[in-house]
Amino acid sequence: MRNIRLTISYDGTNYSGWQRQKGSLEKGTIQGTIEEALERLLQEKVKLIGSGRTDSGVHATAQVANFKTKSSLSLREIRRGLNGLLDKDIRIKNIKGVPEKFNSRYAVCSKTYQYIISHQDSPFLEHYTCFCPTQLDLPAMRKAAKALLGKHDFSSFQAAGSRIKDSVRSIKKLSIRKKKAILGNLILIEIEADGFLYKMARNIIGTLLEVGQGKKVPRDIKKILDKKNRKFAGPTAPAKGLYLKEVKYRRLGAIS
Amino acid sequence: MRNIRLTISYDGTNYSGWQRQKGSLEKGTIQGTIEEALERLLQEKVKLIGSGRTDSGVHATAQVANFKTKSSLSLREIRRGLNGLLDKDIRIKNIKGVPEKFNSRYAVCSKTYQYIISHQDSPFLEHYTCFCPTQLDLPAMRKAAKALLGKHDFSSFQAAGSRIKDSVRSIKKLSIRKKKAILGNLILIEIEADGFLYKMARNIIGTLLEVGQGKKVPRDIKKILDKKNRKFAGPTAPAKGLYLKEVKYRRLGAIS
Fold it and tell me: Disulfide-capable partner of A184 in A44, A120, B57, B186 (CB 3.0 to 4.6 Å)?
């Protein structure tokens, strides 16, 4: 069996998130859509393992996934075949053969998400950014971000009702910057961590937005972390502004 | 009667162009959609006059249109009411009262279109740029652009079968530049003229793209203009990369 790793970008607007789900959905899932295309192409049953799920409406510029196959098609043929079968809102950017033990989900070392905020109510940004009509206090947001850096119990930032035992994660980077774009000025938030609890990225962004709007102050962050209770953090930021930007892996030697 | 001028941005992806059309269309038109919203809001029959049509799939960041009304709603109320009734892919950016004689179509002094080319096959750029897999020779394209500047008979660049008598137009600006964007590098072509023949902007872009790909050379431009025959120019560039960016008007004194 060959083990093949894909780097995938997708516009999440028209999908019910990454993960294949049981029952009938209004929209398809990214995983299910790519699995179906792979099965048509390779004429065998395929199980695609993603680095993790992304929610409905969340985008990716570099999601990583792998699958095993007996097919003798070349990597180039598989990539071209897939891109031919898939709608243009999912693109296979890269393909490579990896050792049999590589697993896109379990070998993750860190993930980076990007969040885009716009101050313009533009038709072109509607599905791709979170619209914020008021100006944001970026220095205050950066102070708050600093308090989130490093290793913490992020219970307050995970979706209510989650039952994960170990909610300690380590945020390696959390930057906030302005970017001049063709269609108006944007604010980009980038967050890298060794792992994310369910909705953690969007709950952190929602809390930072409240700091930017003066509804919270930077020193609230430590208190929120200490409470270990979802109700003290800010609201979940909209999915449409979020992009899975990079997945880093441990060296393969470390997996085996 | 009040005369009201709107500045409108729209994502043309899901519309059959600007102009209201007879018969049943698969998709609506921008003009028809805004007229319907205005009629619901103002409770009277409304005729919306645009600066000109845009084709199916073409976008606008600042289309201009005007309409007359007996309504006593304030400008702010009309703008907010319209944006509330319209889908997010059409936005009223600006509204103002104008003298009764102002006509969005006949008072045009110049129009500017922007065309966006991407070298990345990205799901996020699919409906908003023209994808070009090969690198383009920008210096050659700029030389060709220079030959198009100024007053010429643009018969060779108008859609075949057009029966306009006066096909002389004046191109005031034609710039080609690279732009680093969040999702990859883009090439922006900006073209300003006192008027555009049917499909002239896209036929000029299509010809410049052929120059950029080495299929034509800059000195071919003069020959193409001289032929006054559509078949000598390049193909029509895809609609989805084109944006109506600005409409300039003659001073109102000059209209009356």
Answer: A120
Number of structural domains (chain B) is 2
Pick B123's closest partner by Cβ from A10, A179, A183: A10
- Whether the CB-CB separation of A157 and A231 falls below 8 Å is answered with no
Question: CATH number, domain at A7?
Answer: 3.30.70.580
| Structure ipTM | 0.80
A4 to chain B, any CB pair closer than 8 A? The answer is no
Domain boundary residue, one of B73, B106, B139: B106
Strands (E), B150-213: 150-153, 168-181, 184-193
Q: Return the number of other C-beta atoms located less than 10 Å from residue A136's C-beta.
A: 19
pLDDT in tens, B105-157: 999 999 999 999 999 889 999 999 999 999 999 999 999 999 999 999 999 99
> E-assigned strands of B36-183?
49-50, 59-69, 90-98, 108-118, 130-131, 150-153, 168-181
User: Would you state the structure tokens that stand for residue A169, as one six-digit string?
Assistant: 């994660």
- Note whether A131 contacts B: Cβ–Cβ < 8 A: no
> With contact defined as beta carbons under 8 Å apart, do A249 and A107 qualify?
yes
